[in-house]
TrEMBL record:
It is an enzyme of class 5 (isomerase). Pathway: Carbohydrate metabolism; galactose metabolism. Its EC number is 5.1.3.2. One of its GO terms (biological process) is galactose catabolic process via UDP-galactose, Leloir pathway. Keywords: Carbohydrate metabolism, Isomerase, NAD. Residues 5-254 form the NAD-dependent epimerase/dehydratase domain. It catalyses: UDP-alpha-D-glucose = UDP-alpha-D-galactose. GO terms for molecular function: UDP-glucose 4-epimerase activity. Homodimer. This is UDP-glucose 4-epimerase. InterPro entries: Epimerase_deHydtase, NAD(P)-bd_dom_sf, UDP_G4E. Belongs to the NAD(P)-dependent epimerase/dehydratase family. Its cofactor is NAD(+).
């Protein structure tokens, strides 16, 4: 059993990671400022929840002095692409400066290794698809740029200080805990699957489908949806990879299969038995036609393989969660 610090562990992906680590028998401390996370997402009573900011150096010094951690998983960041364009200073402060504070504290207290939550947004407009780790990194918005900057910092901190890390670049995280205990509840919500389910439930206006003139089979853009539980499994395997003495690296995480917007709407209708209320809208600037991950490196090196790759399964788990989550908000 190892002791781990999970930063942002009360958020969507973080709480699923906490669930996975507990099942693996690890001892956990969760650090979260609850700005976007939920205290009741920590469903086990024996987890120590520290409410605070990852950019608070005094707090980090106290944590690292009081506890001997065998690793850190860092999920805390701002994630709204559009908002990052309007408020870039906020994104660079939160995602880059605060992470720098964390890295400096980890080096001073000899804590490591680190698993970092990165994003496919580091690549910018795709030059080819599926996207592998060698694809050029040319982010086109401050959100993607902030994650790219952290990836560069991780390389430099390894070379200078020996801090080992793995950056995991997600494509489209989706779904919910198969047992129904935790799930997605962003505010505001921007992800397609929960937006479609909310439209079915009548909890929001009809879904907007942005563009039906893409060069795809049905004219809607294609994305790679990866089940959040599969993401958590990849993080655990990345930790084990570093504990085995392997070098700092980064992996792309996705199903390797793309689903169009229309295919997702069709899946929602099959799962719920109801058509998704929607209206067509023009394309959004900067939306590529096809974004799919090449995850062969993670599969071969980490021994990772998504268990919930079917879109109907992903939607079904999200649907079960959406029908009960009103009780938790």
């Amino acid at each position: 059993m190892s002791k781990l610090l999970v930063i942002g562990g009360a958020g969507y992906i973080g709480c699923h990671m906490v669930n996975q680590l507990l099942k693996a028998g690890h001892d956990l401390v969760v650090l979260d400022d609850l700005s976007t996370g939920f205290e009741n997402a920590i469903v086990e009573d024996d987890i120590r929840l520290v409410i605070g900011d990852v950019g608070d150096r005094r707090l980090l010094d106290s944590l690292f002095s009081d506890e001997k951690f065998d690793g850190v998983l860092h999920f805390a960041s701002l994630i709204q692409v559009g908002e990052s364009v309007v408020e870039p200073a906020r994104y660079y402060r939160s995602n880059v400066a605060k992470t720098l504070t964390l890295l400096e504290a980890m080096v001073e207290h000899d804590v490591g290794p680190l698993i970092f939550s990165s994003t496919a947004a580091v690549f910018g407009e795709p030059e080819y698809s599926p996207i592998d780790e060698a694809h050029p990194q040319v982010p086109i918005n401050p959100y993607g740029a902030s994650k790219y900057m952290v990836e560069r910092m991780l390389e430099d901190f390894d070379r200078a200080y020996g801090l080992k890390s793995v950056a995991l670049r997600y494509f489209n995280a989706a779904g919910a805990d198969p047992e129904g205990h935790i799930g997605e509840r962003h505010d505001p919500e921007t992800h397609l699957i929960p937006l479609a389910l909310h439209a079915v439930l009548g909890a929001r206006p009809p879904l907007k489908v942005f563009g039906r003139d893409y060069p795809t089979k049905d004219g809607t853009c294609i994305r790679d949806y990866i089940h959040v539980t599969d993401l958590a499994e990849a993080h655990l395997r990345a930790l084990e990879y570093l504990w085995a003495g392997n070098p700092t690296t980064r992996f792309n995480l996705g199903n390797g299969n793309g689903f169009s917007v229309q295919a997702v709407l069709d899946a929602v209708e099959r799962v719920t038995g109801q058509p998704v209320p929607y209206e067509d809208a023009p394309r959004r600037a900067g939306d590529p036609a096809n974004l799919v991950a090449d995850s062969r490196a993670a599969k071969s090196i980490l021994g990772w393989n998504p268990r919930y790759a079917d879109i109907d399964t992903i939607v079904a788990h999200a649907w079960a969660w959406e029908q009960k989550r009103v009780k938790l908000t």
